[in-house]
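Work Package 3 (structural annotation) set out to generate three-dimensional models for the target panel prioritized at the project kickoff. During this period the team completed the workflow that converts sequence records into discrete structure tokens, so that structures can be stored uniformly alongside our sequence database. As a representative example, we reproduce one entry of 215 residues exactly as it appears in the project archive.
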Amino acid sequence: MRVSDDPAGDVARSLAVRLRAAIRRRGSASLAVSGGSTAPSMLAALVHEDLDWNRLTTWQVDERVAPDGHADRNASQLWFLPSRTELMPVAGDDLAMAATRYADSLPDRFDAVHLGLGGDGHTASWPPAPHPDSVVVSSANDVAMVGDFNGRGRMTLTPAPINHARSRLILTAGKAKADMVRRWLDRDRSIPVSHVRRSSTTLFLDAAAASKLSL
């Protein structure tokens, strides 16, 4: 866990270290990024890092079901990344088939996954109970569909590919997240983020998000 005045910048720098190492070792790197309120500042910092962008491919952790180009789409946060970007196909009619195709496009193992943490304990687009699709955390598929969640249907990576990644970086900020941060660190199994593997996972917080912790 890291608490700082610039958690988004810290995540960007940590991602860059991991991605550079992957490129040195394997000739390419793979990254999955979440949407949400903290992602834009992290991505803005990441784009200034010294990376061989031609050797990096970026996938999405989750996406809202909306037409291409719609402001609600997490894809709108990714347009300026110099890497090759594989966007979730959420604008078609057969979303179940689209999820299967996206799963087939994933790398054998992500080098790094960026996640957020919602005030309700969700990460990726894994809704908390009693949402009818809260069972997505037990899905046998790598990519799944979720019904209306905070105003939109979602396509999301499931725990399997996220937990198989070489590293996971969770970024969250603000006092509204403080209770869920504490509950996750206390191993509260009732919240969706509890399904994220703890080993090789680093939590990046600002002081407000860490305000209910004993540091």
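DSSP finds five helices and ten strands in the chain.
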